[in-house]
Amino acid sequence: MRRGLELEAAGLILVHNHPSGNPAPSDSDIIMTGRVIAAAAVFDMAVIDHVIVGGGRIFSLKAEGLL
């Protein structure tokens, strides 16, 4: 979020990894995403996607309808 503000970004793409190798989002991942979406909205930024990487695979919350 801080870097997005510094760059005057209109949107953010969140990315993190799951060392377990399973890229499926946890309940905590989904809750945190909602919190970041709410915080970004305060600054007129949108969360475009949240991508999780694990085991050579990716999971896109947007593509899976969770965003």
Overall pLDDT metric: 96
What is the terminal-to-terminal distance?
17 Å
Which second-level CATH architecture applies? 3-Layer(aba) Sandwich
- The gyration radius over C-alpha positions equals 12 Å
SS-derived structural category: alpha+beta
Described by strand count, sense and barrel closure, the largest sheet is: 3 strands, mixed
Which residues sit in consecutive blocks of at least 5 with pLDDT less than 50?
none
What is the number of domains? Answer: 1
The name of the CATH topology is Cytidine Deaminase, domain 2
Outline the fold blueprint:
Blueprint: H1 2-6, E1 11-17, H2 27-42, E2 46-54, E3 57-60
Parallel strand pairs: 1-2
Antiparallel strand pairs: 2-3
Could you walk me through the main structural features you see in this protein, from its secondary elements to its overall organization?
The chain has helices spanning 2-6, 27-42; strands spanning 11-17, 46-54, 57-60. The two termini are 17 Å apart. With 67 residues, it is α+β, with helices and mostly antiparallel strands. It is elongated, with a radius of gyration of 12 Å. The protein has a three-stranded mixed sheet with strand order 1-2-3, covered by helices on one side. It has a single domain, classed as 3-Layer(aba) Sandwich (Cytidine Deaminase, domain 2), CATH 3.40.140.10. It contains two helices and three strands; from the N terminus they run αβαββ. The longest helix is centred in the middle third of the chain and has 16 residues, at 27-42.
